[in-house]
């Protein structure tokens, strides 16, 4: 329950940033509001400019959840669970966002058909193809994390192996950041690895209790995260149209760490209610749908509603859209996809005849009728 609460908070932080804090350059020409966010929301923008840190909270939650959900699972089950979880809502979001941008190319233009089709694989980034919606960049980060953690799942998830993975990934990230190895940097993601590592260590705290070693992993990850969000805040200045200070991002990121630590130590067990489960289920569709569709809606409606009512109505509308996607797309399609993948995995596991060295039965040759000469052998 508490995990669902943190999920929806993370998603709403990102929505708040994109609707209230994203400036669209110094002139605001690329903004959905056609002017800088600090002009439209002179007070709230000071906070919203930094709530992109909801993504950092997402990554910490992902480390926690992946470690939790893969315990006792085979590599095939791990692969199936990730495909079933990520793709159904994503496919729908790609198609719906493309349709909206095709009908109203006001803030962003749609990609061509070839690039949209590649987006359906979720592998557009390694092929250097743009995403249908800019928020999809985090999905490729998540997939690289799954690829790395699959090594632990393959051997079997245990306390010792997860701790070893956290330590090795941290050390490797430091070495890669210090050197010049583009492929290793791309695979190990030193700018994001501290969040996933911290999330995994927090799950071990939750399941087995805190130890000095786990506190050390989380503390080291936090120190690296301070460095990363500080750099990103400075680099974001151009996109938001004003100079950015690092300390608000560091504070929000630290709050995210503290919230997850509180969850790991059982301090958020009082958060209960069926509505939290529903809210948690809306998080992923909300994240996928909100940015470019939301910006298009702002551009269409900004002359009909004042900024704050428009943000409120649009956020409520996106939550409703997320519920509809979850109820009528994600749940039924995920169930069908899960059944199909289960059968496919069972087929792979039950094909001993495909094993190396298995005998292959050949048909018995039929003797040629008398008087007919056998053809000469070619080999």
Automatic annotation (TrEMBL):
<feature type="transmembrane region" description="Helical">
    <location>
        <begin position="212"/>
        <end position="234"/>
    </location>
</feature>
<dbReference type="GO" id="GO:0009103">
    <property type="term" value="P:lipopolysaccharide biosynthetic process"/>
</dbReference>
<dbReference type="Pfam" id="PF01757">
    <property type="entry name" value="Acyl_transf_3"/>
</dbReference>
<protein>
    <submittedName>
        <fullName>Peptidoglycan/LPS O-acetylase OafA/YrhL</fullName>
    </submittedName>
</protein>
<feature type="region of interest" description="Disordered">
    <location>
        <begin position="348"/>
        <end position="379"/>
    </location>
</feature>
<feature type="transmembrane region" description="Helical">
    <location>
        <begin position="246"/>
        <end position="266"/>
    </location>
</feature>
<feature type="domain" description="Acyltransferase 3">
    <location>
        <begin position="2"/>
        <end position="326"/>
    </location>
</feature>
<keyword id="KW-0472">Membrane</keyword>
<feature type="transmembrane region" description="Helical">
    <location>
        <begin position="310"/>
        <end position="329"/>
    </location>
</feature>
<feature type="transmembrane region" description="Helical">
    <location>
        <begin position="134"/>
        <end position="154"/>
    </location>
</feature>
<keyword id="KW-0812">Transmembrane</keyword>
<feature type="transmembrane region" description="Helical">
    <location>
        <begin position="47"/>
        <end position="68"/>
    </location>
</feature>
<feature type="transmembrane region" description="Helical">
    <location>
        <begin position="161"/>
        <end position="181"/>
    </location>
</feature>
<dbReference type="InterPro" id="IPR050879">
    <property type="entry name" value="Acyltransferase_3"/>
</dbReference>
<dbReference type="InterPro" id="IPR002656">
    <property type="entry name" value="Acyl_transf_3_dom"/>
</dbReference>
<feature type="transmembrane region" description="Helical">
    <location>
        <begin position="89"/>
        <end position="107"/>
    </location>
</feature>
<dbReference type="GO" id="GO:0016747">
    <property type="term" value="F:acyltransferase activity, transferring groups other than amino-acyl groups"/>
</dbReference>
<keyword id="KW-1133">Transmembrane helix</keyword>
<dbReference type="GO" id="GO:0016020">
    <property type="term" value="C:membrane"/>
</dbReference>
């Amino acid at each position: 329950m508490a995990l669902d609460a943190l999920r929806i908070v993370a998603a709403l932080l990102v929505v708040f940033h994109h609707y209230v804090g994203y400036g669209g350059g110094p002139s605001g020409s690329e903004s959905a509001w056609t002017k800088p966010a600090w002009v439209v929301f002179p007070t709230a923008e000071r906070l919203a400019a930094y709530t992109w840190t909801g993504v950092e909270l997402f990554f910490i939650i992902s480390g926690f959840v992946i470690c939790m959900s893969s315990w006792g699972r085979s590599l095939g089950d791990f692969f199936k669970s990730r495909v079933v979880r990520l793709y159904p809502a994503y496919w729908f979001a790609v198609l719906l966002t493309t349709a909206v941008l095709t009908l109203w190319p006001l803030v962003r233009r749609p990609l061509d058909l070839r690039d949209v089709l590649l987006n359906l694989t979720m592998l557009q980034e390694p092929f250097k193809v743009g995403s249908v919606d800019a928020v999809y960049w985090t999905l490729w980060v998540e997939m690289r994390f799954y690829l790395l953690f699959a090594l632990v799942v393959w051997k079997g998830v245990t306390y010792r192996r997860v701790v070893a993975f956290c330590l090795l990934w941290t050390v490797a990230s430091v070495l890669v950041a210090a050197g010049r190895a583009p492929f290793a940097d791309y695979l190990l993601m030193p700018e994001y690895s501290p969040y996933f590592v911290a999330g995994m260590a927090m799950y071990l705290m939750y399941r087995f209790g805190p130890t000095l070693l786990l506190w050390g992993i989380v503390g080291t990850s936090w120190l690296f995260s301070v460095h990363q969000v500080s750099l990103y805040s400075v680099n974001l200045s151009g996109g938001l149209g004003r100079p950015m200070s690092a300390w608000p991002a560091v504070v929000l990121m630290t709050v995210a760490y503290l919230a997850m630590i509180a969850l790991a130590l059982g301090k958020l067990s009082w958060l209960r209610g069926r509505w939290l489960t529903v809210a948690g289920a809306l998080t992923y569709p909300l994240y996928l749908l909100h940015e470019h569709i939301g910006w298009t809606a702002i551009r269409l409606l900004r002359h009909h509603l004042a900024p704050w009512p428009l943000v409120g109505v649009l956020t409520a509308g996106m939550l409703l859209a997320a519920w509809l996607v979850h109820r009528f797309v994600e749940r039924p399609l995920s169930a069908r996809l899960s059944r199909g993948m289960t059968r496919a995995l069972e087929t792979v596991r039950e094909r001993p005849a495909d094993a190396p060295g298995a005998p292959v039965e050949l048909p018995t040759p039929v003797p040629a009728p008398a008087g007919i000469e056998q053809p000469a052998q070619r080999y």
